[in-house]
Write a structure and sequence with these properties.
4% of the residues lie in helices and 35% in strands. It has two helices and 20 strands. The strands form five sheets. Strands 4-5-6-7-20 form a five-stranded mixed β-sheet. The N terminus is likely disordered.
Length: 365
Amino acid sequence: MKNPIKIAATAILFQITPSHSFAAGEYPPYDGYLLTYFTGNRPWEETLKFSYSLDGRRFNRLNNGNSVIDASHSEMGGLRDPYIYRGQDGNFIMTATDMQSWKGWGSNRGIVLMQSPDLIHWKSATVNFEKQYPNLFPGLHAAWAPQVAYNPLTDRNMVYLTVGSNDPYKAYYAHTNRDFTALTETPRQLFYARDGIGYIDYDINEQDGKYHMLMKAESSPQGSTARLRVIKHAVSDHLTWGYIMPSQDEVQRTGNAVEGPQAYRLNDGSGYIVMYDNYLNGGFQLVKTTDFKTFTPVSGSDVNQLSPRHAGIISLTSDELHRVLDNDTHITVENAVPATGTGRQVQAAPTVGSSEKRDLGTLKA
């Protein structure tokens, strides 16, 4: 039986050189996927878990379903809405909302940034927007769902996220330093909603020179009849400006409230799957698209056996998958920059019993 992972500020015992470095738009031969997610609103559920998949639809828990990264390195003591990304330099990046929901939905002020050369050894830093930019967001009550994109014009990674303040929810972005431990500029607004809607949970994907943005409609001005808690699509020729909504069509294929859209490119080149959280009715739903215009339901997924909430997913090579499978109980995090918060309380997660892993099937040895 595997023990639950213990995360500590430990020294990295050995350094693994990042295994790949690819130009923008170039894809190596990938063999599977890694999903990172949290599972609920209780303190021990606001931690990060990993699962892997060979086809992007069916998933297998890592570390026996226990957390692989706890929230002891955050300011607020909780990690929500994780996102995972492969940097241009070959390093892996994760971001998360720094928040414990029991403290209130308006309690969070920042995000967590993480970077790793190998998916096993991570360095972590926090960004507190209220402290770092005290005059930029009056009435700040939300810094939610941070994600990452590479900006070819600046040759830097940028973080974009939902900000809630005295204004309606908006998207902001800022570039990071090379070590992915801090923002290097004052955040700027990324998307300007012409319909007055407050959007959250932004997700950007580049396809054939176009940047496709998915987002959840969260709030509307008084007197508006716009549908809320649905997923909309905007597109631009540029990463950081110029997004327009080509239609009022909705991405989700349900009448229920949804959030947290996450699109990922299928390794066989057949298109993209968009997963989103059907959060009031239990579980994820998946749709497939080739053009970000037409979305069709995906059948045969078992992702909901994980009980996931807002999640992120990345394609991995065979070697990378095997590395995570071989080390899923030995994942460590150290603070790259000391967190400024004090008095953090992290409640331990219940341990899940041992379970036999699935056969890796077609995964190359």
